[in-house]
């Protein structure tokens, strides 16, 4: 899962990026509205954490632009402006959730997980595929109750596939959602991650169909 | 919404429904100018002095034949000088001119009555500025009054914006500190972490409370406005449905579009937002918001089917202002802020048992 953090306050941005990274997300950062606009249009994000008081282009304008352009990724507004009038404006501008500063990181992570889950049509907080269970809250993967140790990239690949239920995900799409922007991408590495996942989980869970891509196989 | 407060010379009264039906689509819908155009006020009134002079001239002209007749009567020469039909004609002329003179005086004074009516409407928030054309002697006064109003409003808005900037400028550093505290907690320094967290929470409360106070005290200087309860409730319900999307809450709305309260939209949103948020927080599955008119007031009730609140606790919750640093987690300033704002608008807020089983908040505001 890949997340954009649009926040101009350097320290807070650092804290957000670190916390999101620990929670298993690939994170991009934009320190002003123009950069966020560019990234929001060019890249595929599973969620955006958006500060409203951004320099150059303010967050609300940005949000409206994205929505007008048909960008439907879930957006969590994180702002110093916490009056109800401003919350209504944020939600009417296209935000999916609204948190005012100061906030608890735990709550932000929980809300972000819920947004991503709902955007993918998942209703239960745990993602299941037969005996395989991925819990986005703890970042743990268990197979028949036993924990499976995964690297962060392996986790992202599995998490993205499981969020998409039984749908096929192309290699290009998978690449877009597991790497942050400043990472040298190589779609071959996706194959490597899938191969490693198969080795750790057993061959039966991830199906490959040439021209369509990958999907989780079995009872999701 | 009757036109009772309108002056007798408002020819636009029939069109002056306070809220246009689509007004809730616009965030600026509390601006009452749209529905109260000055177009209907009688055109230019010319000069007040000219009217008085004309009235005096007509009056004197009318008095002349009557005085003449009286003079003849006093000197017993009436029958010699004038035939009865001539007397009648002269009297007719005299009376007609006097009436015309009186009419001129009346017309000259009409703008003052209109001005009084406008001032009353200014005070109750139907209009933001004194509108219409006045006699040339009065118009400068009206203009001065309008620019004074504008000036005061600008100062109030600027002060409010400054208070807002200060508050919001503090929130981000507070967020950074709160995260640092969480980091400390994670590294085992839980005592420091708890101290910082508690102080951050106290500062946040101070900032929120003082910002509300600033907004409340400036509201008296910003031109009064009216806003529809329904528009505010609809926006808030849309918002709360997103914020509480994880829980299957049913928010029932039974608010009449005609119910309008005096005040800034931001403040009405803040009051109703806090009440609705509180209800959503505690509700098991149902929240209901209703409005009714009661005398000159609009009463909005917000109900939930949650656990309710013991009668003894209710007052405590309402008074939980900035001093409550022992506040339980999750118990915000919400209701205290509603209380402050309601008081400012000469309204009241009360907590009762709800027929839904939980708590009912009853907000009364002047309509």
Question: Would you give an account of this structure?
Answer:
The complex is a heterodimer of chains A (220) and B (367). With 220 residues, chain A is of the alpha/beta class. Chain A has eight helices and eleven strands. Chain A has two domains: 2-119, Response regulator (Rossmann fold); 127-216, Arc Repressor Mutant, subunit A (Orthogonal Bundle), CATH 1.10.10. Chain A has helices at 10-22, 33-42, 59-68, 84-92, 105-119, 152-163, 171-178, 187-201; strands at residues 2-6, 26-30, 47-50, 75-79, 97-100, 127-129, 132-135, 140-143, 146-148, 206-209, 213-216. In chain A, the strands form three sheets. Chain A has a five-stranded parallel sheet with strand order 2-1-3-4-5, sandwiched between helices. Chain A has a four-stranded antiparallel sheet with strand order 6-7-8-9, covered by helices on one side. In chain A, strands 10-11 form a two-stranded antiparallel sheet. In chain A, strand 8 and strand 9 (146-148) form a beta hairpin. The longest helix of chain A has 15 residues, at 105-119. Chain B folds into three domains: 1-137, no CATH class; 149-223; 224-367, 2-Layer Sandwich (Heat Shock Protein 90), CATH 3.30.565.10. In chain B, helix 1 packs antiparallel against helix 3 (84-124). The longest helix of chain B is centred in the middle third of the chain and has 48 residues, at 139-186. The N and C termini of chain B lie close together (9 Å). Chains A and B meet through helix 1, helix 4, strand 5 and helix 5 of A and helix 4, helix 5, helix 6 and helix 7 of B.
